[in-house]
Amino acid sequence: MPLVIAVDGPAAAGKGTLARRLAAALGLPYLDTGLLYRATGRRVLGHGADPRDPAAAEAAARGLTPADLARADLRGPEADMAASAVAAIPVVRTALLDWQRDFGRRHGAVLDGRDIGTVVFPEAPVKLFVTASPEERARRRFLELRARGAAADPAQVLAELQARDEQDSRRAVAPLVPAADAAVLDTTALDAEAAFAAAMAVITERLREVSPLA
């Protein structure tokens, strides 16, 4: 199977930025799997339905189009919570699982999400779990919102992020946890350059372990 690198972690830990840079450096396709769930949640909301409704969420997941992934409203508190809600529904995860696996198996890929190393590609030779303290992640999300011109209260951003963490880590299906063989990368005190260097060091070592003669 072509090289697949799994990058998991909670919101605002820096996994998306890191995964995109790793993909570019390694010449691999990149997939933000969270967009699939965000787009599904948005489709549900757009139909005036509840993202926690399994029937509505499954219909939205199976009806996804490339245009849904390019929507401009896939970020923000409402989209975050809708994505987390639909991601907790087993039939939604089933509907999107084959799509993700096919993407990775075609040419290899760097995929970021919350269950890439535990569910989507448990056989991936390289698994990273990118995290940071809740306070640092909330600070980053606040700055991101402010840069987009969105009104945001730091305390509210932290509360919403912690609620999302709670929902993701406690869901019955594919909870947010590091894979047993994942390298945990705490970016609390790391900038983008340092995080990239640390990740590349892990990747180099893991690939050497699986292909010692390479």
Automatic annotation (TrEMBL):
Source species: Roseicella aquatilis
Keywords per UniProt: ATP-binding, Cytoplasm, Kinase, Nucleotide-binding, Transferase
Family matches, as CDD domains: CMPK (cd02020)
The protein's name: Cytidylate kinase
The Cytidylate kinase domain, residue ranges: 5-201
Compartment(s) where it occurs, according to its Swiss-Prot or TrEMBL record: Cytoplasm
Family affiliation: Belongs to the cytidylate kinase family. Type 1 subfamily.
Catalysis performed (reactions): CMP + ATP = CDP + ADP; dCMP + ATP = dCDP + ADP
Any GO BP: pyrimidine nucleotide metabolic process
Superkingdom per UniProt: Bacteria
Annotated positions binding ATP: G9, P10, A11, A12, A13, G14, K15, G16, T17
One GO cellular component term: cytoplasm
Enzyme class (EC, first level): transferase
